[in-house]
Amino acid sequence: MALPRRAANPDDDALSEIRSILGLSEHELADLFDVRRESVIGWRRNGIPETRRASVGRLLDLARVLYRDIRPERIPEIVRTHDDWLPHGTMLATIRRDGPEAVYAYLRRLFSYAD
């Protein structure tokens, strides 16, 4: 007889999706939220605190936009590449300091030059 499957954990799924799309280590994921890696492990186990839920949701939305609009295999490099248009040099540094909204502004500016 097979072991019962663990119930799906949407908080763990959201964190894993962000981490996978952006190509992050657990430590880098924690840095984006300005917490220790152990805190993120606790979020996976016990759920994301209400005070962090919106931040995780906004970052998940941004990760999905990047996944939809950019070749997925290039995303980890792109989020780490310096660009003078970003307030803090890279997408990851900008997210860490100013949140995903600053990256959305960058993307709008960048895509406004596209055909």
Keywords:
115 residues, 7 helices, single chain
Helix content range? 55-70%
Domain tally? 1
Please tally the β strands and state the result.
0
Largest sheet: none
Q: What is the strand content?
A: under 5%
The number of helices is 7
Average pLDDT, rounded to a whole number, is: 91
Q: Which segments are poorly predicted (pLDDT under 50) over 5 or more consecutive residues?
A: 1-7
Give, in order, the helices and strands. HHHHHHH
Distance between the termini: 57 Å
Structural shape: globular
Structural class: mainly alpha
Rounded radius of gyration (Å) = 15 Å
Summary of the model, kept short:
This protein has 115 residues and is mainly α.
Detailed description of the structure:
This protein is 64% helix and 0% strand. The chain is built from 7 helices and no strands. It has one domain (10-111). It has helices at 10-22, 26-32, 37-46, 50-69, 75-78, 91-98, 100-111.
